[in-house]
TrEMBL record:
Its main location: membrane. The chain crosses the membrane at residues 52-71, 78-97, 109-129, 136-156, 168-187, 230-251, 271-292, 304-322, 328-350, 362-385, 397-419. It catalyses: aldehydo-D-galacturonate(out) + H(+)(out) = aldehydo-D-galacturonate(in) + H(+)(in). Gene3D superfamilies: MFS general substrate transporter like domains. The lineage of its organism: Bacteria, Pseudomonadati, Bacteroidota, Cytophagia, Cytophagales. Keywords: Cell inner membrane, Cell membrane, Membrane, Signal, Transmembrane, Transmembrane helix, Transport. This is MFS transporter.
Amino acid sequence: MTNAKTGNYRWVVCALLFFATTINYIDRQVIGLLKPTLEKEFSWTESDYGNIVMVFASCYALGYIIFGNFIDKIGTKLGYTISIVVWSIAAMLHALVKSTFGFSVVRGLLGLGEAGNFPAAVKAVAEWFPKKERALATGIFNSGTSIGAVVAPILVPWILGVYGWQEAFLITGAIGFIWLIFWWFFYEIPSRHKKITPAEFDYIHSDNEPAPAENSKQIKWSRLLGIKQTWVFILGKVLTDPVWWFFLFWLPSYFATTFNLDLKKPSLHLAIVYTATTFGSIGGGYLSSYLIKRGWPVLKARKATLLVVAFTVLPIIGARYAPNIWAAVGIISLAAAAHQAWSANIFTIVSDIVPKKAVSSVVGIGGMAGSIASALFPLLVGTLLDSYKAAGNISAGYNILFIICGLAYFVAWFIVHFLTSRLKPVDL
């Protein structure tokens, strides 16, 4: 961080992004924690649940494209506001539905609204931070995904036990409107913010990347899809996003079926897994930022960090040999933490290689692609687990899925490495 004379208001902005991301993940995690209760209430099969997750992921993909372009046009402040209003209302509507189809509808609306979080947050980081601090700032706000996933396994079972599953959706969904008050009063772009000092403004733009003009012309998607820089992010998301969604939506069920974990009580095991991801997100952002400050070229520092991540995920292939739940928690915690380190750096690469005025659009395109992959993956997961459950050996189905998770990051790293071997920031 800079000294007090320069100013540190940008870290206030980072805190706002962190809390929004935390709320985002609390809201999407609720259904996974209520899955055993809702299965009994609505007679769901694994495939039914997989289809609901698929609807969420499909609408999340659509929302990425809508909000990615929308936020570049209307600005971060208003775009983020619209996003959180939509997803908070959708989260609360879960309490009113009476059928599996109803859950699919409100789940789709939730996905549509939640998709605005990352295009807005990554754009805000590009607006408020120099390149040498962006990975750390992204790692910090991205750790909100982990904190949300830690808070939810503690908060949701407590609400379920005291009130009921409907209240779990209502209470968690309402939190977004509290955040919105702080966002509206504390956020503005640096060129229009009254609390930023001239010294901090100069520091933010010290990497010779000019601030975008307020009336800068929108770049068409067709042009963005024609450059390798966009495909670096697309493929980096397509190959790894499904792994995180599997951790998010099926880990509670995995611990319940394999180790008889009672999901009606606050879960220390799940809290530990998602706490580890907080360290992964911030640590991954810190590592590449540290290497840059030591003189490494920006892309070399990002790719070196991503390679460390790929090696760190590998042990999850051996999760099948875990002798007890705590050994499984340790192995899965390592892999989940590594994913968040990957996420912090793959998001930051966007702001490294495309202009600020196109950041949300590229994040939207790549996020949509990753979400489509994540929408298809639950079909495989649901079908695979139903098949092995019918054979009385559901653990074998999870073992296959862990092997896929363990190899995905190496495949993604090799593709990212070769696409960026001679890549420079694009001039649009």
